[in-house]
Amino acid sequence: MSSLYVHIPFCASKCPYCDFFSQVGSQQHIDEYVELLNLNIEILKRNSSPSPPFSTIFFGGGTPSLLSSRQIESILNSLEQNFGIAMDAEITLEANPGTVDLAKLQGYRQAGVNRLSLGIQSLTEKNLKLLGRIHSVKQARESIFAARTAGFDNLSLDLMFALPSQDLRSLEQEVSALLNLNPEHISLYGLSFEEGTEFSLRRQSGELASCGDNLYADQYQLLHDQLVAADYEHYEISNFAQPGQRCRHNQIYWQRRNCLAIGAGAHSFIEQGWGERWHIPTNLQKYKESLLQGENPAELLETYDHQGAMREFVYLALRTSGGADLHEFKRRFERPMEEVFSVALKNTGKYLHSNNDHYSFEQTGWLLYDHLISHFL
Ligand code: SF4
Questions:
Q1: Probe target for ligand 1 pocket from 8, 18, 19, with the most ligand atoms within 8 Å of CB
Q2: How many CB atoms lie within 10 A of CB 310?
Q3: Which atom of ligand 1 is nearest to the CA of 61?
Q4: What is the pLDDT of residues 289-314, one digit of tens each?
Protein backbone atom coordinates (compact mmCIF):
# COMPACT_ATOMS: atom_id res chain seq x y z
CA MET A 1 0.00 0.00 0.00
CA SER A 2 1.16 3.48 -0.75
CA SER A 3 -0.37 6.92 -0.27
CA LEU A 4 0.30 10.47 -1.32
CA TYR A 5 -0.53 13.86 0.19
CA VAL A 6 -0.55 16.94 -2.06
CA HIS A 7 -0.41 20.32 -0.30
CA ILE A 8 -1.99 23.38 -1.94
CA PRO A 9 -0.93 26.40 0.14
CA PHE A 10 -3.33 28.98 -1.29
CA CYS A 11 -6.61 30.35 -0.01
CA ALA A 12 -9.08 32.95 -1.28
CA SER A 13 -8.52 34.87 1.97
CA LYS A 14 -6.91 34.11 5.30
CA CYS A 15 -9.34 33.05 8.05
CA PRO A 16 -8.53 34.87 11.32
CA TYR A 17 -8.22 31.68 13.43
CA CYS A 18 -6.07 29.67 11.00
CA ASP A 19 -2.40 28.88 11.52
CA PHE A 20 -2.06 26.38 8.65
CA PHE A 21 0.51 27.12 5.99
CA SER A 22 -1.56 28.94 3.40
CA GLN A 23 -1.58 32.35 1.81
CA VAL A 24 -3.65 34.37 -0.59
CA GLY A 25 -2.25 33.68 -4.05
CA SER A 26 -2.93 35.18 -7.47
CA GLN A 27 -3.99 33.00 -10.41
CA GLN A 28 -0.46 33.35 -11.73
CA HIS A 29 0.99 31.98 -8.46
CA ILE A 30 -1.40 29.05 -8.57
CA ASP A 31 -0.64 28.23 -12.22
CA GLU A 32 3.10 28.33 -11.53
CA TYR A 33 2.65 26.18 -8.42
CA VAL A 34 0.84 23.46 -10.41
CA GLU A 35 3.79 23.28 -12.78
CA LEU A 36 6.11 22.99 -9.79
CA LEU A 37 3.99 20.16 -8.38
CA ASN A 38 4.38 18.24 -11.61
CA LEU A 39 8.14 18.76 -11.38
CA ASN A 40 8.02 17.65 -7.75
CA ILE A 41 6.33 14.41 -8.82
CA GLU A 42 9.12 13.60 -11.27
CA ILE A 43 11.83 14.37 -8.72
CA LEU A 44 10.03 12.35 -6.05
CA LYS A 45 9.88 9.43 -8.45
CA ARG A 46 13.66 9.61 -9.00
CA ASN A 47 14.27 9.67 -5.23
CA SER A 48 11.79 6.99 -4.13
CA SER A 49 12.20 3.25 -4.10
CA PRO A 50 9.69 1.48 -6.34
CA SER A 51 6.31 1.41 -4.69
CA PRO A 52 2.94 -0.08 -5.56
CA PRO A 53 0.43 2.26 -7.23
CA PHE A 54 -1.12 4.83 -4.89
CA SER A 55 -4.16 3.49 -3.10
CA THR A 56 -5.03 6.87 -1.58
CA ILE A 57 -4.31 10.43 -2.70
CA PHE A 58 -5.32 13.49 -0.68
CA PHE A 59 -5.33 17.07 -1.98
CA GLY A 60 -5.24 19.18 1.20
CA GLY A 61 -4.57 22.79 2.02
CA GLY A 62 -5.10 25.61 1.97
CA THR A 63 -7.87 25.46 -0.54
CA PRO A 64 -7.21 22.87 -3.27
CA SER A 65 -10.49 23.85 -4.93
CA LEU A 66 -8.77 27.05 -6.10
CA LEU A 67 -7.23 24.76 -8.73
CA SER A 68 -9.22 24.17 -11.89
CA SER A 69 -10.35 20.66 -12.77
CA ARG A 70 -7.78 20.68 -15.61
CA GLN A 71 -5.00 21.41 -13.15
CA ILE A 72 -6.14 18.59 -10.85
CA GLU A 73 -6.34 16.33 -13.89
CA SER A 74 -2.79 17.23 -14.95
CA ILE A 75 -1.46 16.37 -11.48
CA LEU A 76 -3.35 13.06 -11.44
CA ASN A 77 -2.10 12.23 -14.95
CA SER A 78 1.45 12.90 -13.87
CA LEU A 79 0.99 10.69 -10.79
CA GLU A 80 -0.48 7.94 -12.94
CA GLN A 81 2.46 8.08 -15.36
CA ASN A 82 5.17 8.22 -12.69
CA PHE A 83 3.78 6.03 -9.91
CA GLY A 84 0.47 4.52 -11.02
CA ILE A 85 -2.86 4.92 -9.26
CA ALA A 86 -4.77 1.84 -8.09
CA MET A 87 -8.09 1.21 -9.84
CA ASP A 88 -9.98 1.50 -6.56
CA ALA A 89 -7.90 4.37 -5.15
CA GLU A 90 -9.56 6.83 -2.80
CA ILE A 91 -8.86 10.31 -4.20
CA THR A 92 -9.93 13.11 -1.86
CA LEU A 93 -9.98 16.83 -2.55
CA GLU A 94 -10.61 19.49 0.09
CA ALA A 95 -12.93 22.15 -1.26
CA ASN A 96 -14.39 25.32 0.16
CA PRO A 97 -17.87 26.63 -0.62
CA GLY A 98 -17.49 29.88 -2.47
CA THR A 99 -14.74 28.42 -4.69
CA VAL A 100 -16.72 25.68 -6.47
CA ASP A 101 -19.68 25.40 -8.79
CA LEU A 102 -21.34 22.48 -10.53
CA ALA A 103 -19.11 22.59 -13.64
CA LYS A 104 -15.91 22.61 -11.56
CA LEU A 105 -17.11 19.75 -9.37
CA GLN A 106 -18.11 17.73 -12.43
CA GLY A 107 -14.62 18.35 -13.80
CA TYR A 108 -13.02 17.10 -10.56
CA ARG A 109 -15.19 13.99 -10.67
CA GLN A 110 -14.23 13.32 -14.28
CA ALA A 111 -10.56 13.86 -13.43
CA GLY A 112 -10.84 10.97 -10.95
CA VAL A 113 -11.55 12.67 -7.62
CA ASN A 114 -14.05 10.43 -5.84
CA ARG A 115 -14.19 11.89 -2.33
CA LEU A 116 -14.91 15.52 -1.53
CA SER A 117 -14.18 17.12 1.82
CA LEU A 118 -16.17 20.34 2.06
CA GLY A 119 -15.10 22.97 4.58
CA ILE A 120 -18.56 24.22 5.44
CA GLN A 121 -17.52 24.73 9.15
CA SER A 122 -20.95 25.95 10.26
CA LEU A 123 -24.54 26.16 9.16
CA THR A 124 -25.31 29.45 10.88
CA GLU A 125 -24.61 32.81 9.29
CA LYS A 126 -23.44 34.36 12.55
CA ASN A 127 -20.72 31.73 13.06
CA LEU A 128 -19.51 31.89 9.46
CA LYS A 129 -19.12 35.66 9.81
CA LEU A 130 -17.29 35.33 13.11
CA LEU A 131 -14.92 32.77 11.53
CA GLY A 132 -14.23 35.11 8.62
CA ARG A 133 -15.29 32.49 6.08
CA ILE A 134 -15.89 33.68 2.54
CA HIS A 135 -19.13 31.70 2.11
CA SER A 136 -22.71 31.94 3.35
CA VAL A 137 -24.96 29.13 4.60
CA LYS A 138 -26.77 29.27 1.26
CA GLN A 139 -23.49 28.75 -0.60
CA ALA A 140 -22.57 25.85 1.70
CA ARG A 141 -25.89 24.15 0.91
CA GLU A 142 -25.52 24.88 -2.81
CA SER A 143 -22.02 23.35 -2.82
CA ILE A 144 -23.32 20.17 -1.21
CA PHE A 145 -26.18 19.97 -3.69
CA ALA A 146 -23.77 20.59 -6.59
CA ALA A 147 -21.40 17.90 -5.27
CA ARG A 148 -24.22 15.37 -5.20
CA THR A 149 -25.36 16.41 -8.69
CA ALA A 150 -21.76 16.04 -9.93
CA GLY A 151 -21.83 12.43 -8.71
CA PHE A 152 -19.94 12.60 -5.40
CA ASP A 153 -21.33 9.82 -3.25
CA ASN A 154 -18.56 10.12 -0.66
CA LEU A 155 -18.86 13.50 0.94
CA SER A 156 -17.17 14.68 4.12
CA LEU A 157 -18.28 17.87 5.88
CA ASP A 158 -16.23 19.84 8.41
CA LEU A 159 -17.97 21.27 11.45
CA MET A 160 -16.39 23.62 13.98
CA PHE A 161 -17.44 23.78 17.61
CA ALA A 162 -16.34 25.49 20.85
CA LEU A 163 -16.94 28.83 19.16
CA PRO A 164 -17.27 32.01 21.21
CA SER A 165 -20.86 32.37 22.48
CA GLN A 166 -21.91 29.01 21.02
CA ASP A 167 -24.20 27.24 23.49
CA LEU A 168 -25.32 23.63 23.60
CA ARG A 169 -28.74 24.37 22.19
CA SER A 170 -27.45 26.20 19.11
CA LEU A 171 -24.85 23.47 18.51
CA GLU A 172 -27.54 20.80 18.74
CA GLN A 173 -29.63 22.62 16.14
CA GLU A 174 -26.61 22.97 13.92
CA VAL A 175 -25.84 19.25 14.11
CA SER A 176 -29.47 18.41 13.28
CA ALA A 177 -29.22 20.63 10.20
CA LEU A 178 -25.96 18.91 9.27
CA LEU A 179 -27.48 15.46 9.65
CA ASN A 180 -30.33 16.43 7.32
CA LEU A 181 -27.67 16.80 4.63
CA ASN A 182 -26.71 13.14 5.17
CA PRO A 183 -22.92 13.37 4.62
CA GLU A 184 -21.04 10.06 4.56
CA HIS A 185 -18.35 11.51 6.83
CA ILE A 186 -18.04 14.34 9.36
CA SER A 187 -14.84 15.90 10.73
CA LEU A 188 -14.99 18.04 13.86
CA TYR A 189 -12.70 20.94 14.70
CA GLY A 190 -12.80 22.45 18.18
CA LEU A 191 -11.73 26.09 17.85
CA SER A 192 -8.35 26.76 19.37
CA PHE A 193 -6.65 30.13 19.66
CA GLU A 194 -3.29 29.50 18.00
CA GLU A 195 -0.44 31.87 18.68
CA GLY A 196 0.18 34.39 15.95
CA THR A 197 -3.39 34.34 14.63
CA GLU A 198 -5.76 37.29 14.63
CA PHE A 199 -8.10 35.33 16.94
CA SER A 200 -5.34 34.90 19.48
CA LEU A 201 -4.74 38.68 19.54
CA ARG A 202 -8.46 39.33 19.84
CA ARG A 203 -8.61 36.97 22.78
CA GLN A 204 -5.69 38.69 24.46
CA SER A 205 -7.46 42.03 24.05
CA GLY A 206 -10.60 40.57 25.65
CA GLU A 207 -12.69 40.88 22.49
CA LEU A 208 -13.10 37.09 22.15
CA ALA A 209 -13.35 34.46 24.85
CA SER A 210 -12.68 30.73 24.57
CA CYS A 211 -15.59 28.53 25.52
CA GLY A 212 -13.90 27.01 28.60
CA ASP A 213 -13.06 23.39 29.43
CA ASN A 214 -16.45 22.39 30.83
CA LEU A 215 -18.48 23.67 27.91
CA TYR A 216 -15.92 22.18 25.49
CA ALA A 217 -16.40 18.78 27.13
CA ASP A 218 -20.19 19.12 27.09
CA GLN A 219 -20.18 20.09 23.42
CA TYR A 220 -17.90 17.18 22.52
CA GLN A 221 -20.19 14.81 24.41
CA LEU A 222 -23.26 16.25 22.67
CA LEU A 223 -21.64 15.84 19.25
CA HIS A 224 -20.70 12.25 20.06
CA ASP A 225 -24.19 11.39 21.33
CA GLN A 226 -26.05 13.04 18.47
CA LEU A 227 -23.88 11.60 15.70
CA VAL A 228 -23.69 8.11 17.16
CA ALA A 229 -27.49 8.14 17.58
CA ALA A 230 -27.67 8.92 13.85
CA ASP A 231 -25.61 5.76 13.15
CA TYR A 232 -22.24 7.41 12.58
CA GLU A 233 -19.20 5.55 13.88
CA HIS A 234 -16.98 7.71 16.07
CA TYR A 235 -13.86 6.08 14.65
CA GLU A 236 -11.22 8.68 15.58
CA ILE A 237 -11.08 11.51 18.12
CA SER A 238 -12.43 14.06 15.64
CA ASN A 239 -13.93 11.92 12.90
CA PHE A 240 -17.26 10.19 12.32
CA ALA A 241 -18.34 8.04 9.40
CA GLN A 242 -21.34 6.13 8.18
CA PRO A 243 -20.55 2.39 8.05
CA GLY A 244 -17.95 1.65 5.36
CA GLN A 245 -17.14 5.34 4.79
CA ARG A 246 -14.07 5.93 6.98
CA CYS A 247 -11.36 8.02 5.34
CA ARG A 248 -8.83 5.49 4.03
CA HIS A 249 -6.09 8.08 3.61
CA ASN A 250 -6.15 9.26 7.21
CA GLN A 251 -6.16 5.68 8.43
CA ILE A 252 -2.82 5.17 6.68
CA TYR A 253 -1.51 8.07 8.75
CA TRP A 254 -2.88 6.72 12.04
CA GLN A 255 -1.49 3.27 11.24
CA ARG A 256 1.95 4.76 10.66
CA ARG A 257 2.14 3.55 7.08
CA ASN A 258 4.03 4.94 4.08
CA CYS A 259 2.70 8.26 2.92
CA LEU A 260 4.67 10.30 0.39
CA ALA A 261 4.03 14.02 -0.01
CA ILE A 262 4.49 16.82 -2.49
CA GLY A 263 3.99 20.58 -2.20
CA ALA A 264 5.45 23.26 0.05
CA GLY A 265 4.58 22.55 3.69
CA ALA A 266 3.78 18.86 3.07
CA HIS A 267 4.91 16.11 5.46
CA SER A 268 5.66 12.51 4.57
CA PHE A 269 6.34 9.30 6.47
CA ILE A 270 8.56 6.51 5.19
CA GLU A 271 8.56 3.02 6.68
CA GLN A 272 12.32 2.65 6.63
CA GLY A 273 14.16 1.33 9.66
CA TRP A 274 11.94 2.44 12.55
CA GLY A 275 10.47 5.19 10.41
CA GLU A 276 11.43 8.58 9.01
CA ARG A 277 9.47 11.80 8.79
CA TRP A 278 10.29 14.29 6.05
CA HIS A 279 8.89 17.70 5.33
CA ILE A 280 9.03 20.27 2.57
CA PRO A 281 9.70 23.71 4.07
CA THR A 282 6.92 26.28 4.08
CA ASN A 283 8.81 28.61 1.80
CA LEU A 284 7.46 28.94 -1.73
CA GLN A 285 10.56 30.63 -3.11
CA LYS A 286 12.84 27.94 -1.72
CA TYR A 287 10.47 25.26 -3.00
CA LYS A 288 10.67 26.74 -6.50
CA GLU A 289 14.45 27.10 -6.45
CA SER A 290 15.05 23.52 -5.28
CA LEU A 291 12.78 22.07 -7.95
CA LEU A 292 14.18 24.19 -10.77
CA GLN A 293 17.66 23.01 -9.81
CA GLY A 294 16.41 19.42 -10.00
CA GLU A 295 16.75 18.88 -6.25
CA ASN A 296 14.38 17.08 -3.92
CA PRO A 297 12.82 19.87 -1.79
CA ALA A 298 12.08 17.48 1.10
CA GLU A 299 14.21 17.63 4.26
CA LEU A 300 14.59 14.93 6.88
CA LEU A 301 12.71 15.95 10.02
CA GLU A 302 13.11 12.92 12.25
CA THR A 303 14.60 9.43 12.19
CA TYR A 304 12.95 7.22 14.79
CA ASP A 305 14.69 4.76 17.05
CA HIS A 306 12.97 1.64 18.39
CA GLN A 307 11.62 3.44 21.48
CA GLY A 308 10.42 6.47 19.51
CA ALA A 309 8.66 4.29 16.95
CA MET A 310 6.83 2.32 19.68
CA ARG A 311 5.70 5.55 21.34
CA GLU A 312 4.44 7.06 18.12
CA PHE A 313 2.63 3.87 17.14
CA VAL A 314 0.68 3.99 20.40
CA TYR A 315 0.18 7.78 20.19
CA LEU A 316 -1.47 7.44 16.78
CA ALA A 317 -3.33 4.18 17.36
CA LEU A 318 -5.01 5.38 20.56
CA ARG A 319 -6.58 8.24 18.59
CA THR A 320 -8.73 5.64 16.83
CA SER A 321 -11.64 3.53 18.06
CA GLY A 322 -9.75 0.41 16.94
CA GLY A 323 -6.99 1.39 19.37
CA ALA A 324 -3.59 -0.27 19.63
CA ASP A 325 -3.52 -3.81 18.28
CA LEU A 326 -1.38 -5.94 20.61
CA HIS A 327 -0.49 -8.51 17.93
CA GLU A 328 0.45 -5.81 15.43
CA PHE A 329 2.59 -4.10 18.09
CA LYS A 330 4.46 -7.34 18.82
CA ARG A 331 4.85 -8.09 15.11
CA ARG A 332 6.32 -4.65 14.38
CA PHE A 333 8.45 -4.12 17.48
CA GLU A 334 9.18 -7.65 18.72
CA ARG A 335 8.18 -6.76 22.25
CA PRO A 336 4.80 -7.05 24.02
CA MET A 337 3.05 -3.70 24.44
CA GLU A 338 2.03 -4.62 28.02
CA GLU A 339 5.70 -4.96 28.92
CA VAL A 340 6.93 -1.77 27.19
CA PHE A 341 4.15 0.43 28.55
CA SER A 342 3.29 -1.35 31.80
CA VAL A 343 3.42 1.86 33.90
CA ALA A 344 1.48 3.98 31.36
CA LEU A 345 -1.18 1.29 31.01
CA LYS A 346 -1.56 1.15 34.78
CA ASN A 347 -1.82 4.95 35.08
CA THR A 348 -4.44 5.29 32.33
CA GLY A 349 -6.27 2.01 33.02
CA LYS A 350 -9.41 3.76 34.24
CA TYR A 351 -10.01 5.18 30.75
CA LEU A 352 -8.77 2.24 28.71
CA HIS A 353 -10.92 -0.43 27.20
CA SER A 354 -8.95 -3.65 26.81
CA ASN A 355 -9.39 -7.20 25.64
CA ASN A 356 -6.91 -9.83 24.51
CA ASP A 357 -6.30 -8.04 21.22
CA HIS A 358 -6.51 -4.28 21.75
CA TYR A 359 -6.21 -1.30 24.03
CA SER A 360 -8.41 1.66 23.18
CA PHE A 361 -9.77 4.79 24.82
CA GLU A 362 -13.46 5.34 25.30
CA GLN A 363 -14.58 8.80 24.24
CA THR A 364 -14.23 10.13 27.81
CA GLY A 365 -10.55 9.19 27.46
CA TRP A 366 -10.32 11.05 24.16
CA LEU A 367 -11.46 14.22 25.93
CA LEU A 368 -8.39 13.92 28.15
CA TYR A 369 -6.23 12.61 25.35
CA ASP A 370 -3.35 15.09 25.64
CA HIS A 371 -3.02 14.37 29.34
CA LEU A 372 -3.48 10.58 29.10
CA ILE A 373 -1.18 10.06 26.14
CA SER A 374 1.63 11.93 27.93
CA HIS A 375 2.02 8.80 30.09
CA PHE A 376 3.13 6.89 26.98
CA LEU A 377 5.54 9.50 25.60
S1 SF4 B 1 -9.77 28.27 4.16
FE2 SF4 B 1 -8.91 26.77 5.61
S3 SF4 B 1 -6.69 26.73 5.24
FE4 SF4 B 1 -7.54 28.60 4.25
S5 SF4 B 1 -7.24 30.21 5.74
FE6 SF4 B 1 -9.33 29.42 6.04
S7 SF4 B 1 -9.10 27.78 7.59
FE8 SF4 B 1 -7.04 28.26 6.83
A1: 18
A2: 20
A3: 3
A4: 999 999 999 999 999 999 999 999 99
Distance in angstroms (rounded) separating the CA atoms of residues 93 and 108: 9
320, 360 Cβ separation under 8 angstroms: yes
Region 146-166: mean pLDDT is: 97
Three-state secondary structure call for residue 58 = strand
Please report, for the chain, the start and end positions of each structural domain, with discontinuous segments joined by +. 3-252, 322-377
DSSP β-bridge partners for residue 359: 324, 354
Question: Quick check: 286 pLDDT over 80?
Answer: yes
The verdict on domain 3-252 having CATH code 1.10.10.60 is no
The residues facing 59 across adjacent strands are 6, 93
Kindly state the DSSP code that residue 320 receives in the 8-state scheme. Answer: B
Helix (H, G, I), strand (E, B) or coil at 104: helix
Phi-psi region of 263 (alpha: psi -120 to 50; beta: other; left: phi over 0): left
CB 188 within 8 A of CB 159: yes
With 0.90 as the threshold, say if the pTM is over it.
yes
Q: Over the chain, what is the mean pLDDT?
A: 96
> pLDDT band for position 50 (50/70/90)?
confident
Rounded distance from Cα 9 to ligand 1 centre (Å): 9
Work out the percent of the chain whose per-residue pLDDT is above 70.
100
Ligand 1 nearest-atom number relative to CA 14: 5
Best substitution site from 20, 24, 128 to test ligand 1's pocket, by max atoms within 8 Å of Cβ? 20
